[in-house]
Amino acid sequence: MCIIINKQKNTFHLCNEEISYIMTVLPNSQMGQLYFGKRIKEREDYSHLLEILPRPMASCIYDTDKAFSMEHIKQEYGTFGATDYRIPAAEVIQENGNRISEFCLHDYRVEPGKPKLPGLPATYTENDAETDTLILGLEDQQAGLRLELTYTVFARGGIIARSARFLNHGGQTLHLSSAMSLCMDLPDSEYDWIQFSGAWARERYPKVRRLEQGIQSVGSLRGHSSHNHNPFVILKRPNTDESHGEALGFSLIYSGNFLAQAEVDTYDTTRVLMGIHPNGFDWKLSPGEEFQTPEAVMVYTDRGMNHLSQTFHSLYQKRLARGYWRDRERPILINNWEATYFDFTEEKLIKIAEKAKECGIELFVLDDGWFGQRSSEHAGLGDWTPNLDRLPEGINGLAQRIEDMGMKFGLWFEPEMVNRDSDLYREHPDWILAAPGYRSSHGRYQYVLDFSRKEVVDCIYRMMAKILSEAKISYVKWDMNRSITECYSAALPPDRQGEVYHRYILGVYDLYERLTEEFPQVLFESCASGGGRFDPGMLYYAPQAWTSDDTDAVERVKIQYGSTYCYPLSSMGSHVSAAPNHQLNRNTPLRTRANTAYFGTFGYELNLNLLSEEEQEEVKEQIRFMKEYRHLIQFGTFYRLKSPFDGNITAWMTVSSDRKEAVAGWYRTLNGVNMPYTRLRLQGLDPEAEYEVEVRGSCERGTFSGTQSFRIGTRCGDELMNLGLITSDASSGQNENAESCDFDSRIYILKAK
Ligand code: DGJ
């Protein structure tokens, strides 16, 4: 990895073995983009890559020149008002109302390693040799504004991390009405755009469409990254598939309002923008003040979508997630939410926990309803003190009983919210986000605390820290169950109201930072009505997240599949729940619920006492299986094999780093009769190795079991990857032994001999 600076030719070349990222200083001293893609050799001169053609209708910079127009030049950080008509990366309003900016290169520096972004989540290094960072210092003299564009190139992987920082060193007050983290001008538009969209309980479905002239974007104005769209998009070449071809991934390490956008211009170049959503954003920069954007990560691959995802997985698993739990196998947990909802007593919880312990579960999590007057959605949020009617010895007493059983104890919080029926609200009604003169809308009867105010965050911190330090708590589920409305802070002046959304998220990050620092061994799991804040920003503080409130196995396969495009399995909370399922009323086999949930951070979300003895035995075997394979599943190399969005069969697998072991999941939505022969091409194996292959679930001989493995035989790695594993089954309609069914699934286990 290195950063090569050619002072004569004014070029900057960031590279490692896989990628090159090349920029140049343009004749007007602004920064031009020359190339981002597969590694190319260092050359003396790249000036031929700078395309400047005279174009009809162009507005030009120089009096004597009819070609030099910013409209047609690929740039690093396009700005508004001076010949570039595309959507800019930033917009700055000066005291005289001027919105035109011109950022010219003033200085630059190269630093080993990677600087931290104060108050914001970001990728990091463990030693300086892992990355190099280039910081370009640009100046808009007229505005008295300095812009620092930061580029970090990693030694391994096609990764460039970027962010921007604005420093007002002039004498006037400025307003940033847009400040993107990333602007990337690509030379053509032959891409499929993939976004990850959906809704509550059906998050992150990949949606693919061809880029066309005009703007394609996704974003959130909900105050959290949202179920609706994820801050991650892919541009892939039309012929790129999971194992071949070029793709670019763009991911924003941020949990609030965001925009991800591609604008294809008249000449088929593409501008990608990513950052805080400019709608509702207005950051006042008084003289001497600075503004730091969140970090955006770009990944390039020419080896297909699985490779793109694997690059994000290892980066986010090892250099975004932090702390004690980063590299550790995650505890198998039981959560009481779907088992009891608000209807529980300590004794009821203990019975659930006892059965869980008997089955081998390691962590008992008490969800919503343990505090204040919280016996329904209407009351209690904000009062983080135990309800002694339900828990006579408080959290301390319950946690101790669970610990005495030999399990760890975890607890649910929703720190950012308050019910009107709570002591906190009665004492501080002005602590919610609310616009003067307007009605305050609720979501689930709750209101959003103004986390842009330090005293509010401090107060919640004190309540949470007290509980965490008094009781033996090993895990926290941090929930957030509504989007923000009436985003107005009573504590900020009128000309700073455009800062509230971002200041709110900074407050959330601040609370996370304080708690994770003070309680480093507590495992944090983030949640926002399931996957409403399933983003890289959260991963920096909480190494796992509740993937979705939808626990139906068939739906979960889709949600988890879509999530794997960016996020590692170690980040995905995935639990076995009851049948019929509480969201869809669907019955799926217990084995399928587990076979789906294994591919994440495994757990249960039901009352195991209500299962038959046979099912309880199956659960014990599932837990035994997961304990044996969770390291491989959670930390192995993950491959998508067959998409639930393309057909009846879904398949995926993880492979150990030495390629000696692999576990594959196979899921079939509907059963069929007299079905065609089928094969599944595996990936990532050692072509030379011979693997012993076993199956759990229905198999080609018509046997099935949720608890037993059946030996298939010895197969060669090259055969498994090229011919495929035979997966045809015996449900021909004439075989009486065939016990396969709708929503069936199997786990294949491969071990090199
Ligand atoms: C939404 C979460 O996603 C659920 O798992 C549960 O914790 C409820 N909130 C509790 O209110």
What molecules are bound to this protein?
(2R,3S,4R,5S)-2-(hydroxymethyl)piperidine-3,4,5-triol
Q: What's the average pLDDT?
A: 96
Helical content stands at 10-25%
Number of helices: 12
Radius of gyration: 27 Å
The largest sheet, given as strand count, sense and whether it forms a barrel, is: 10 strands, antiparallel
Oligomeric status: single chain
Structural class: alpha+beta
Beta percentage is 25-35%
Ends distance: 37 Å
Q: What would the principal axes of the Cα set say about the shape?
A: globular
Can you count the beta strands?
38
Unreliable spans: 699-703
Structure report:
By secondary structure, the protein is of the alpha+beta class. Strands 6, 7, 8, 9, 11, 12, 14, 15, 19 and 20 form a ten-stranded antiparallel beta sheet that branches. An eight-stranded parallel β-barrel has the order 21-22-23-26-27-28-29-30, surrounded by five helices. Strands 5, 10, 13, 16, 17 and 18 form a six-stranded antiparallel beta sheet that branches. 19% of the residues lie in helices and 32% in strands. The radius of gyration is 27 Å and the shape is globular. Strand 3 (19-25) and strand 4 (31-38) form a beta hairpin. It is built from twelve helices and 38 strands. Helix 3 packs parallel to helix 4, helix 6 packs parallel to helix 7 and helix 9 packs parallel to helix 10 (590-597). (2R,3S,4R,5S)-2-(hydroxymethyl)piperidine-3,4,5-triol (DGJ) is lined by residues 337, 367-368, 412, 479, 481, 527, 529-530, 546, 549. Belongs to the glycosyl hydrolase. The active site is at residues 479, 549. Residues 31-285 form the Glycosyl hydrolase family 36 N-terminal domain.
